[in-house]
Amino acid sequence: MHFSLERNARACLIFAMFTFGTVGLFIHYIPLPSSIIALSRAALGAAFLWLVTRLGHIDMSAVQIRANLKLLVLSGICIGVNWILLFEAFRHTTLAIASICYYMAPVFVILASPVLLGERLTGRKVVCVLLALLGMCFISGLFDGGLTGGAHLSGVLFGLGAAGFYAAVVLCNKKFSEISAYDKTIVQLVAAAVVLVPYTLVTEDWSSLTCTPFQLFLLLVLSLFVTGFAYALFFGSIRYLKAQTVAILAYIDPIVSVLLSVLFLQEPFTMSILVGAVLILGSTLVSELRS
After folding, report:
1. pTM confidence score
2. Collapsing DSSP states into helix, strand and coil, what is residue 126?
3. Are 85 and 158 in contact, with CB atoms under 8 Å apart?
4. Is residue 151 exposed (0-12), middle (13-18) or buried (19+ Cβ within 10 Å)?
5. Statement: residue 27 has pLDDT above 90
6. Region of residue 141 (phi > 0: left; psi between -120 and 50: alpha; otherwise: beta)
7. Which residues contact 237 (CB under 8 A, 6 or more apart)?
């Protein structure tokens, strides 16, 4: 019975990570500003998860939410900014490069942990950071004659910015007192949506926005299925799996993004990008498994 439960949880997590890997593909076909897509994803994703808690008779703890409210709001804001930057990265460079840059987040966490969390920076972690930075040199094109292509460089910078804000979310999560995964994520997504509403109203010209019925359908799928449903699967599965299993399977996300970029969108994938991907994903994986 335990084996069957663990096997089903692993299958659910694999499906969730595969689904997360398709986010860039949806962004590619939705011609809306990144802020509006992020707002839709936050608001509808939160609504879906709240519905899951109601249908599953999962109680939300007002006490735990109040105890962590400041960090929940701060991390929610970081999630909103993180998504905007990531979606912009998808628009300015290839899906593969944007996804790989995004996985620099564990490196930023390692660098910030000694200051913010009091964790020791070990020799192994230093080596992993240096290898990941070397990988970024390959990804950015530094070894291919310089940082050429303004759009590509902008995409790399947007991806790194998204990684920085995602690292901030991870660091906030490490500071939380006891709180359930559903409570935490629902409040974070609500906070992200609340912040994104005035931002989109000020920065976007809503009267000029156009979206076909099919593109609107893609936006709904991204918000409800790729965000809400996939998060529900993610949280429902990780409680039955070991931390190292979760860490390993999480790398399905960038691998799927790279494969979709090359096979489906036929975006260029050079040897330098391959070397950079191996260095970044490999070093961050080793660091996380050791942690």
Report:
1. 0.87
2. helix
3. yes
4. exposed
5. yes
6. left
7. 9, 10, 12, 13, 16
